[in-house]
Amino acid sequence: MTAPTWPDGLQDNTPLPFTVWRVLHHVDGQRDIAEVARLSGMTVPDVQEHLRAAAAWVARATQRDLPISDELADRIIQCLTGVVGPVAAVMVDEVLDDLGDHATLNATLATLAKQLTPERVQLFARLLRERGVT
To answer: Which domain of life is it from (predicted)?
Structure first.
């Protein structure tokens, strides 16, 4: 078996669930997957699943820092429309204009969330997850 490695882009300060870090703590590019599983107290399939989960977390973290594309802005508007109605397009346009070159997914969603009640933020977050935005 080959030695697993950390997903590209993963750093020590990347926020991950504890169960994933529990596996990655033993991944050093030297130990094979069976040894990582033994040290983690898991099965090999469990370790493989945790490695896939880590890669997915890194992909989402990377996406959050990318500039907003037109397609992504449209998906955000669709999700926000389910929360606030047709005013969503205006809200997103204003936020993107205000943020200018700093309009990343994180910054855009954080700015929009400030304009919503806690209940609406929860609904918005759920809709974003369902549509694969976050």
So the answer is: Bacteria
pTM: 0.61
pLDDT digits (tens, 9 = 90+) for 59-87: 777 777 778 889 989 999 999 999 999 99
**How sure is the predictor about 40, in pLDDT bands with cuts at 50, 70 and 90?**
very high
Residue 3, H or E segment: none
**Amino acid in position 73:** A
Please count the CA atoms within 13 angstroms of the CA of 86 that sit on its side-chain side: 0
Q: Could you give the CA distance from residue 108 to residue 111 in angstroms, rounded to a whole number?
A: 5
From the centroid of its chain, how far is CA 38?
29
| Displacement of CA 89 from its chain's centroid (Å) | 23
> 56: which 2 tokens?
């997915």
| Identity of residue 2 | T
